[in-house]
Design a protein that fits this description.
The protein is an alpha/beta fold. It is built from 12 helices and 19 strands. It has 2 domains: about 220 residues, 3-Layer(aba) Sandwich (Rossmann fold), CATH 3.40.50.12780; about 100 residues, GMP Synthetase, Chain A, domain 3, CATH 3.30.300.30. Strand 6, helix 9 and strand 7 form a beta-alpha-beta unit. The chain binds zinc ion.
């Protein structure tokens, strides 16, 4: 592994002006752990949508241009060579096989096709590698549930791939049952998963990946219903580091180094996720390390005035209210110089007052915001919390600057 890492670092330093400035030769693990981390803003500032940028190692012909959604700040552009795109699809095909997909399946790809989002194209090639039948249904943004369900009922897929929050809405619209399901793009709260699996008549397997890194982790049957993934060591080196020191840790922030990406190298990239190493291995016997995801780094907390609100505290408070789902969203806005916070929960029935009480009891600091009229709580139907490009962030900060 060290050899591959040293080779990609040397290539990056030789061909990219950005990496030439930041990297030093890697001869040992210590050398590597001393390299600077790559931030999301480094990609934004040093890679341009027109194929220029000093992080790139050469001309971008023979590549595919994809972009992150605008969920957390300005978009990040990623240039993937087609060979790399193919490796990503191979990872997705492995995720499909582990999810129970076979060449006999009719696979509906319900990822959103537009907006330069990468999952859509990767899934196409993965179905081709699998040798199954591809149904490129896609998801309209915003979702036209009735039309989508009509199309899917007509096509009769036996397997589907898509974003969980979108599938939930299609299920409520009458999505027919299938044999196998592979989801990606966001975590699924246990209660939502139960609802989905019951309605679809199939267990849901997840794949871990993102636009910047490609496919990172897959779930075998033993890892289903967990947030654990086998890491695709063939393609990526995944570190877990202490956020404060940047040193290896059992639990902390996830850094990704891509072992084969040459056009737009990715070295110690802060993928924005928190995770934990699972050292006990996996009962399935796959010789790939296991990591457990613990949520997004930037969705941990938000500061409103002098009140620090942690998303985990909100989740714990909500768990005590019967009838409330586990999905929620904290939105922070500022209007006329006043900061306002709105928390939407998904649930059944008139629970607004009960939820507010539970929140104030669990998080006393919220009382101050409540008494000044800066806190609003609402309970909406399951699936009604808006998604941004198919993702459901727990914290959405809409303040200027
Ligand atoms: Zn396993």
């Amino acid at each position: 592994m060290l050899g591959s890492i040293a080779a990609i670092c040397a290539y990056a330093a030789e061909h990219s002006h950005f990496y030439a400035r930041s990297l030093r030769p890697v001869r040992s693990c210590e050398d590597f752990f001393a390299l600077p981390m790559l931030n999301a803003d480094d990609i934004r500032q040093h890679v341009n949508a027109d194929g220029t940028g000093d992080l790139l190692t050469g001309p971008t012909r023979g590549s595919v241009v994809v972009s992150t959604s605008a969920t957390s700040g300005a978009r990040k552009i990623v240039h993937r060579e087609f060979a790399e795109q193919h490796r990503i699809a191979e990872g997705l095909a492995m995720a499909m096989r582990l999810a129970g997909f076979t060449p006999d399946d009719r696979v509906a790809n319900i990822f959103p096709p537009g907006g330069l989002l990468a999952a859509w194209i990767g899934m196409h090639e993965a179905v081709e590698i699998l040798g199954a039948t591809l149904l490129p249904v896609g998801a309209t943004l915003p979702l036209d549930v009735e039309e989508q369900v009509r199309t899917l009922t007509w096509l009769r897929p036996t397997a589907i791939v898509g974003v969980p929050s979108m599938l939930v809405r299609l299920i409520e619209g009458g999505l027919p049952r299938v044999r196998s399901v592979l989801c990606g793009g966001e975590m699924i709260p246990p209660e939502t998963r139960e609802f989905m699996e019951k309605a679809l008549g199939a267990e849901i397997a997840l794949v871990y990946g993102n636009v910047e890194c490609g496919t990172l982790g897959v779930q075998c049957e033993a890892l289903r219903r967990t947030e654990r993934y086998h890491i695709l060591e063939r393609d990526v080196f995944v570190e877990v580091v202490d956020r404060a020191t940047g040193l290896p840790a059992e639990e902390g922030e996830i850094l990704v180094t891509h072992l084969h990406r040459r056009l737009q190298p990715l070295i110690r990239y802060r993928a924005g996720d928190r995770g934990r190493r699972i050292n006990s291995g996996c009962s399935c016997g796959l010789p790939l390390p296991v990591i457990e995801l613990q949520g997004r780094v930037d969705e941990l907390e938000v500061l409103v005035g002098d009140v620090r609100l942690r998303a985990d505290d909100v989740a714990v408070a909500a768990r005590g209210v019967p009838g409330l789902g586990e999905r929620f969203q904290i939105r922070v806005r500022s209007s006329d110089g006043k900061e306002k916070i709105a928390i939407a929960f998904e649930g059944e029935g008139d629970l607004k007052d009960t939820v507010l009480e539970a929140l104030l009891r669990a998080i006393p600091a919220l009382r101050k915001l409540e008494s000044s009229g800066a806190l609003a709580v609402e309970v909406v139907k399951r699936g009604a919390i808006p998604t941004i490009a198919g993702k459901t962030p727990r914290i959405v900060d809409e303040r200027e600057g």
